Amino acid sequence: MKGIREKLLSIAIAIILTMFIFYGINTFYPRPEWDDMCKDVGAATNQTACEAAKGEWSYNEGRPRPVKLEGEEIYEPGFCECKVFEDAREGYSRVVFIVALILGLIAVLLGAIVLKLPSVASGVMAGGIITVIFGTLEYWGHMPDFARFICLGIVLAILITIAYKKLSKK
What we know:
Blueprint: H1 2-28, H2 34-42, H3 47-52, E1 56-59, E2 78-81, H4 83-114, H5 118-139, H6 145-167
């Protein structure tokens, strides 16, 4: 029974630590909201209205584009992108990624080096790993391939180093 309690405690610490970090990030650095930046953009049904609302019109790829006849209003197949929101969202994701990476690695190192109680150390390390994963996923779509490769390589090297140092003592 003692082993089960320790494992449950580790899992609970990992989950709560991850939630704590991300709620902290969202509390002090709020996520950009589409409605705050792009209310008028969503109502745009053609390129002219989209650009007037400071959006960027994108046609559906591979489809023919309509030709506007004089005096006629026609439906343009496409959608209006809110470039301001997309830029703000990318910047937000980058900051979340950096903060989560730093705090996650600190948690992993804290659990591996400083904390002595195994269930707490394991929970803090797992929470740090989950935080790094979620932070990376937040920015993954905006990250260039070389940055993904480097980021994953660094985190993998740190985890392998910690595993060797921590597990080789036993």
